[in-house]
Amino acid sequence: MSRNIAVLPGDGIGPEVTAEAVKVLKATGASFEFETALVGGAAYDDGGHPLPAATLDLCRKSDAVLLGAVGGPRYDQIQPPTLRPEVGALLPLRSELNLYANVRPAKTLRPLMQASPLKMRAGSMVDLVVMRELTGGIYFAKPRERRDNGATAVDTCIYHRHEVERIANRAFQIARQRRREIVSVDKANVLETSRLWREVVTEMAAKNPDVKVTHMLVDNCAMQLIREPAQFDVILTENMFGDILSDEASMITGSLGLLPSASLSDEKAGKVFGLYEPVHGSAPDIAGQGRANPIAAILSTALMLRYSFDDDRGARRIEDAVEHALDAGLRTADIFEKGCNLVSTREMGDAIAFRLQSAAL
What we know:
Helices cover 40% and strands 21% of the residues. By secondary structure, the protein is an alpha/beta fold. A 10-stranded mixed beta sheet has the order 2-1-3-12-11-4-5-10-8-9, sandwiched between helices. Strands 6-7 form a two-stranded antiparallel ribbon.
């Protein structure tokens, strides 16, 4: 059965890493139909808006979306700010497609144990998932404005009970596939939204006794991720905290270029619609140089197979092919170490795709 995928390469290194992710999907041997559309700064340059109606329509009629990256310094001064790629494309994509559950796995790959700035010991290897609420909180609530001729800035953080309940339900589902442990992260000693968050998660924990739930303040969590990352299994948290903590977790594994993500909607007719993207940004300073690491984008396709197409075997094949390439000593610039073979973005993608094709013979 054909799987329809909307491909949104975006800006900076987005087109480069997305091309390798598509190459790897094709190498699995499954049937895919790809259709490409503009988003972010590329769409703004083309037609004056970072999220054209045609792009949003394509996403709605597709089975899944593969996104590269959007934005860059050259778009940071666009007025009004709602036309900047991050605000005018990413946030509307999430809200319009109801992508409220952001799944960000962070796992130390054994060939890269020494790539972590923490120089991982075997007992402190990272294998966790950040479950980030993606369509609420301070990134979406209003008013969001400048006052007093720009001298005062206002952002608003709002959470509703149902928003906390639905992301927590997803966290319980994910936890049951892992070690059945959730750390719910908030700032309940200061923020009213966090107090609601903690109340709701506590109530839900009582109804799900098979999963161990503990609470942790976000500043302590940031410290504990450095001190003892192996203690975490599933981290459940709100939008802004999840944004920050997942980037921290990715660097502990060795590079932002290694961390995939899935942004999921509700299940309908047995299918889960999702948008899949690497968590790294557009990195315009290295765009077009073949230096970008495509692994995060490639691993995002594994999440696509797992969540949107219920193909865990295909997902594991991609993950195994990535590890095989790393075991062979292939490294892009961000994870390069002495004694390894420095390769380009395309060469890394070629090696992973070749492994998939060879394993299928």
